[in-house]
Amino acid sequence: MKFIKSLNLLLVFLFVFSINAQKLSKLEKKIIKQVEFNNDEAILLLEKVVNINSGTLNLEGVKKVGAVFSDEFQSIGFTPTWITMPDEIGRAGHLFCELTKGNINGKKLLLIGHLDTVFEKDSPFQEFTMVNDSIVHAPGGNDMKGGNIIILYALKALQEKGLLKNTQIIVAFTGDEESSGKPLSISRKDLIDAAKRSDIALGFETSTGLKYATVARRGSSGWKVEVTGKRSHSSGIFNKNVGAGAIFELSRILNTFYNEVRGEEYLTFNPGVILGGTQVSFEKSLSKGTAFGKSNIVAQTATVKGGLRFISEEQKENAREKMKVIVAKSLSHTSAKISFTDSYPAMSPTKGNAILLSTLNQVSLDLKQGRVEAYDPGKRGAADTSFVAEYVDCLDGLGALGNGAHTLKETINLNAFEALTKRTAILIYRLINQK
After folding, report:
1. Can you tell me the distance from the alpha carbon of 175 to that of 114, in angstroms, rounded to the nearest whole number?
2. CATH class, 219-343 region
């Protein structure tokens, strides 16, 4: 929590020096009125897209949701482009919508969402259902079709008031955020290219509430340890000719990881699946496997797959080096190797991100929505903003408010929806007019 406390202290400092900053202007009040006027329409569109299944592997469903948003963005002056992924990637593709108009006066923005959800076609959770007058059960409602709608209707309010002149805004809705296509060099190339043409990226993943925004996210990567031992009758285990066996060696490695790698702030590692015995097979695509062994046979093979979370590339590399050293110290008559796979890079905290947070904070105060602070990255997963954080200042967690994301009880709070859209509209307006 050390750097989060530091960022929030910086936020207080920036707030003190901006205490006399602008309140809502007459034009901004008109933007707010337009968001209010459009809110019922926004909720109807939210229901429509939620009711279209777009599980990551339902490629046609992802494309169908993309087509709905493509038409909507085109109607407010954006140029939509569907970016198809190669067949070997196994993903539907991405929707990018761009508005570049006139001489750019302010910040060039990249607004990030995603079309896919974790709920595939065989999920029992498929429909937008009202629980009461403000809460809706909605598969993918807050992660993150609600965030997509917030982007659209914030921009719609600005467009309808003629306020998107002399701007560059790229809206990037990926089709595989929940399970990114591999290799990432292909599936995230267009997102990174868009970032290189932008000044600021705003991510609309699940909101952390009106009081928080995300200035940092942990990265994620995979690791795998494979161990071989000497197969023998169990009566000889531990003697100089047989040694410890593969399972004891793997146990040593995991226990040493726990004792010697664990402890750094925001660094976590989790062994997700483990197999050991005389014979082991693992199906990577299904993340499951089988093992055969007997209690009177010393295990000759063992394997474990896990994940690693980190707040910076430096922290990731330091952890990997420690893990390599531990793996190399094999017990007698065993050998082990560790391999790593990269997934999401870290979105590290930066001064630029903190300044963006201060801008959002001022917007929120001007809207009388309260102060906004930095959210603890240890409580957030990885997201697409992580891929662009190297190139632009970022702020995330700006999407819809709800609970139970990725579960059969996922909800979205409609009472907060309009307020979040207002906040987004004013934030975008101020940024595109900021020198």
Report:
1. 6
2. alpha beta
The correct CATH number of 2-217+347-432 out of 3.40.630.10, 3.90.550.10, 3.20.20.70, 3.90.70.10 is 3.40.630.10
Classify 18 in phi/psi space as left (phi over 0), alpha (psi -120 to 50) or beta. Answer: alpha
CA-wise closest residue to 48 among 76, 72, 66, 68: 68
- Give the residue carrying structure tokens 């050991």: 276
* Alpha-carbon distance values, 333 to 89, 252, 276, 279, 300 (Å): 41, 14, 16, 17, 10
Which CA distances in Å does 113 have to 59, 178, 308, 326? Answer: 17, 11, 24, 40
Distance, in Å, from the CA atom of 299 to the CA atom of 301, rounded to the nearest integer, reads 6
Mean pLDDT value of segment 144-151? 97
What value, to the nearest 5°, has the Cα angle with vertex 116 and ends 70 and 75?
15
Work out whether strand 335-344 and strand 219-228 pair parallel, antiparallel, or are unpaired.
Answer: antiparallel
Cα R_g (the chain), whole angstroms: 25
Is there a common fold for 2-217+347-432 and 219-343?
A: no
Please state the domain extents for the chain: 2-217+347-432, 219-343
Compute CA 198 distance to the chain's CA centroid, rounded to the nearest angstrom. Answer: 19
Locate the DSSP E strands across 267-380: 268-277, 279-283, 288-292, 301-310, 335-344, 373-374
Q: pLDDT tens across 214-224, in order?
A: 999 999 999 99
The CA–CA distances, whole Å, from 3 to 56, 265, 376, 378, 379 equal 34, 10, 9, 12, 14
Please report the pLDDT score of residue 16 as a whole number.
Answer: 45
Q: Please tell me whether residue 396 adopts helix, strand or coil conformation.
A: strand
Average pLDDT over residues 393-402: 96
3-state secondary structure at position 395? strand
Q: What's the pLDDT tens digit per position in 65-120?
A: 999 999 999 999 999 999 999 999 999 999 999 999 889 989 999 999 999 999 99
